[in-house]
Amino acid sequence: MLIFLAVYLLSFIFLEIPDFLTEEECQKIINLASREGLDTSEVQDPETGINIEPTNEKTFHSWDYNSDGVIDKAEVSTED
Q1: Are 54 and 41 in contact (CB under 8 A)?
Q2: CB–CB of 19/6 below 8 Å?
Q3: What is the mean pLDDT for each group of 10 consecutive residues in the chain (80 residues)?
Q4: Cα distance from N-terminal residue to C-terminal residue, the chain
Q5: CA gap 45, 54 in Å, rounded
Q6: Beta carbons within 10 angstroms of residue 75's beta carbon
Q7: Of 11, 17, 26, 68, which has the fewest beta carbons less than 10 angstroms from its beta carbon?
Q8: Continuous segment of H or E residues that includes residue 59
Q9: Which of 74, 72, 70, 76 shows the shortest CA–CA distance to 4?
């Protein structure tokens, strides 16, 4: 599993730090968050508004319309 930190700023600067956390460190953060009452968010289809399963690889690829490996604003925007 590839773990990285990405920071998005309003000026569209992108910072990526590959291997920022190990899987074990990620799991520790998830466990700590769960103990504080945080849980997986519901995900809605941007076109229908219907709740769908939490984002997984299949969902990611279905939203990545141009197959560039990134879901950008245009791919999830509901504005015409």
Answers
A1: yes
A2: no
A3: 58 69 89 85 76 71 84 71
A4: 36
A5: 11
A6: 13
A7: 11
A8: helix 57-63
A9: 70
